[in-house]
Amino acid sequence: MQIQRDMATHGEKDVDRIEPFWWGLFAAGGGIAAMFAPMQILLQDLLGNAGVPVATSSYRRARRLAANPLVRMYLFALTSLSLVHWAHRFRYYVMDLGVTGARRQIALVCYGTAIAGSLDAARIVLRLPGRAR
Amino acid sequence: MASGESITLTATRYSPEADVEPWLQSYVIPYREDMVVLDALNYIKSYVDGTLSFRWSCRMGICGSCGMTVNGTPTLTCASFLRDFFPGEIVVEPLANFPLVRDLVIDMSDFMHKLGMVKPWIIRDRDKPVTEGEYRQTPAQLEEYQQYSQCINCMLCYAACPVYAMEPEFLGPAAIALGRRYNLDSRDEGALDRLKVLATSDGIWDCTFVGECSVVCPKNVDPAKAIQQTKVDTTIDWYKQHLLPWMRR
Ligand code: SF4
Ligand code: FES
What we know:
The complex is a heterodimer of chains A (133) and B (249). By secondary structure, chain A is mainly alpha-helical. Chain A has a single domain (21-127), classed as Fumarate reductase/succinate dehydrogenase, transmembrane subunit (3 helical TM bundles of succinate and fumarate reductases), CATH 1.20.1300.10. Chain A has helices at residues 19-49, 59-66, 69-96, 103-127. Chain A is elongated and about 65 Å long. Chain B has helices spanning 37-48, 109-117, 139-146, 156-160, 162-166, 173-183, 191-198, 212-216, 223-243, and strands spanning 6-13, 23-30, 67-70, 73-76, 90-93, 100-102, 105-106. The chains are: A mainly alpha (133), B alpha+beta (249). Chains A and B meet through α1 and α3 of A and α2, α5, α7 and α9 of B. Bound molecules: iron/sulfur cluster and FE2/S2 (inorganic) cluster.
């Protein structure tokens, strides 16, 4: 049991200028991951594979869809925001598990992974073939 | 209406003059169904062992001074009935995460300091003279912050918070809820001032949204909600400032 504890000093710190940026993406990613990811899996994998004639039931139809820039933007948002959501949550998990030091490095690894994943997602989405002839 | 039954209550004992470490002492006392844990402690103090130290005052969930850890959970001992544990034993320990002064008494200086940090009073750019009358407020404006004004400073939320346990610098649930209470008050103009304390890495951004504070809060203040809402507001402001600079407040 704790008998002594250093009297904490919550001094006047500067307002955190970058955290709201990540938290905003985290919140958006949470919404996307919770709403669209299950829908995406349902449509693309479950229903399509079960033979239901959804828009993604065949490669050809999916490819036609993916030719649309809006669909590409959606695919990119779905992937990148989910990744950032993971990064932020995981960063806090690590803190919850009792790691109090190395904050900067942990943040760097988490968000770095998300950024790398997002860049790769952008690359793949951009290289998707255009409208099938 | 003695039932003849008894219950075992084990309490933390610690005397800074005599003990290196806290230890546990068990007392067997008469059990009555209408007794709360605080009654049991007072029974011990009056009839069994006058040296047992603990804080209490109102016995009715108002003063916030009787918070202790009862069977592992931060609890108001005046609102916790023996019958909920009987015939099992009851272990009463001091609130976690605070330095121990004696037996069940903790040092609350850090908590008091943090409450003061959020400037829990109405801040005005310019006070209007008394002759101009009072600051009026509609029921809807009162409703905005009323929930957050119900805090009795019992510190249960700090004892329950794993972030505060690891990081003593964390401003903590009750202080953030109190800051939000004033930020939401239509009479107040100090929000930007308070954000310098709230929107820091030791403030709202230290919170990992475990939510235990709101679980243990005896007054349904819901400090976790206060923290999340402040995160949302701060984030919206950030994006407005950086993406829509013309919409800056
Ligand atoms: S917010 Fe609730 S648990 Fe925390 S000090 Fe206030 S009344 Fe107690
Ligand atoms: S004695 Fe006052 S709240 Fe319990």
